UniProtKB/TrEMBL annotation:
UniProt repeat feature ANK, residue ranges: 16-41
Main location class: secreted
Any one GO BP annotation for this protein: exocytosis
GO CC terms of this entry: extracellular region; host cell presynaptic membrane; other organism cell membrane
Native source organism of the sequence: Nephila pilipes
UniProt-recorded name of the protein: Ankyrin repeat and fibronectin type-III domain-containing protein 1
Superkingdom of the source species: Eukaryota
Protein's cellular compartments: Secreted; Target cell membrane
Keywords: ANK repeat, Exocytosis, Membrane, Neurotoxin, Presynaptic neurotoxin, Secreted, Target cell membrane, Target membrane, Toxin
Molecular functions (GO terms): toxin activity
UniProt-listed InterPro entries: Ankyrin_rpt (IPR002110), Ankyrin_rpt-contain_sf (IPR036770)
């Protein structure tokens, strides 16, 4: 996607509610922040204050932790039973975007 092609792309949000500008700010990518702002980007209105953004990030970290625990349990069970096919199947369900 070209940034200049459509100004509205700077307002798109990902599945977690963050805009490209939000992500650039959170990763301290100053050059990207400046580029996005020069094309009219704005932070997500879903997170009007630092606390709401922090709460969302904490929720995402907790969710990721649960996924890691679930996958660990699955791998342990598969190792105990001598088969990793169940664990590999779980990985494909958790992260289907790795099939590129």
């Amino acid at each position: 996607m070209r940034l200049g092609a459509k100004r509205s792309h700077t307002y798109n949000v990902n599945a977690d509610g963050f805009t490209p500008l939000d992500l650039a700010v959170m990763t301290t990518n100053v050059a990207m922040v400046q580029l996005l702002q020069s094309h009219g980007a704005a932070e997500s209105p879903k997170f009007p204050c630092r606390e709401s953004r922090s709460n969302q990030l904490q929720n995402l970290v907790r969710e990721a932790g649960r996924c890691v625990e679930d996958l660990g349990t699955c791998v342990l069970s598969a190792a105990t039973n001598g088969s990793l096919s169940a664990a590999l199947l779980k990985v494909r369900v958790v992260s289907p975007s790795t099939d590129n």
